[in-house]
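Many introductory courses stop at the sequence. We go one step further.
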Amino acid sequence: MLKELFTRISGELRTLPRQFWLLAAGTLVYLIGVEMAYPFETIYLNRNLGVSMTKLGLILGITLFATLPVQIVGGALCDKIGRRPVLIIAILGSMTLYIGLGLTRDLWLVIALIAFEAAFGWAQYITASNAMIADLTTLERRAEAFSVSRVALNVGVTIGPLIAAPLIILDPSFRLTFLAAGAVCGIFLLMVIFFFKETRPATTRSVSIRVVFGGYGAVLHDRRMLVFCLVALLPLYGFGQIWVTMPIMLGDLHGVSAQQWGFAMVVYGAATAVLQYPVVRMVERRDHMLLMALASLCIGLGLGGSALAPWPWTLAFVALISLGIVLFIPFSSTIVSHLAPAELRGRYMGVWTLVYMGGYAIGPLFGGWALDALGGRGAFLAIAAAGVLGALLFPLLRTRGVSEELEAVEEPATAMLSGELHGERPEQAL
């Protein structure tokens, strides 16, 4: 029975396009590099450079907010010049930050590097890769494809801290770790330059840049999209603090060291990688808004519980957070892709990236202050409350079942790749 199931699933996976698997492999490499550095940035700034959590939250929050308009530009450029050039910009943005952190200890320059990466790095990768996955897959397989991409991402999340741990022991200043992270991201850059092909639909290629930016009016008039984005900010407030305030909170309340925090990230990455594909395959035909509600609940309770449980029991709540992320990322991206017509896909994904990164910005901006003002437990119980509120609001956005949506919209992937796209907007509800 299990052998037959494995054979059937592996056969289905092989039908996904080669370019998709190249993107998944590149994502794995990219995330290994990112996770060699990202989980340790706040520890480095707080403990090595002496930046308080309130100041740290302001630095991260303000730089993210200040650079959010660039995500609008990124979404437009995805539609105008293509997904591949924006991917290249994103990788260069990340490499600039990590190599820069390895070469300087001047706080003003570190802030400038963080702002540069916030504008041109990871966020642009999200927009371009999400648009590329939507280009390459049919609607009925999109959640599955997003989940496979997340498996690759979370394997990287698992491997990155494992590689970083001995480097931190060898060089506690983090310099070696940051430089190595930038070099690993460079491998993904070479993959995109030499092996990737453009997937942008042909219908967007003759559109002027004025019309591309003007197309955002359609997104802003989409009330379903806007309400969904507003509710999504609640779990994103917690999600944005996993790598920012959570390691500091665990250190203050439970004496968790940088090496132990790295191990917690290994548990997070491993749990997410293991759960991602089978969980999404099991529930992909369920109501997406109910799945988003469950995701919000898991993220909120996982973060809130981590402040109450002493180490190593904290790891159980890290696994609960992982389950929330397993559901949140692929289904939120799928919902946005359902709402977006092909010729506006980059802009919809750009707006979603703006919301996604805005949640990250709200997390450290208020979370750093809350950590200093309310203490670790008070700050993280507030995160739990936000997650519960999101779980109550998402079901209110339900209108019809996922199976009905999939029957209502047919987008052949082969038509996308050949440019034979229909531009009409699918009239499906959230």
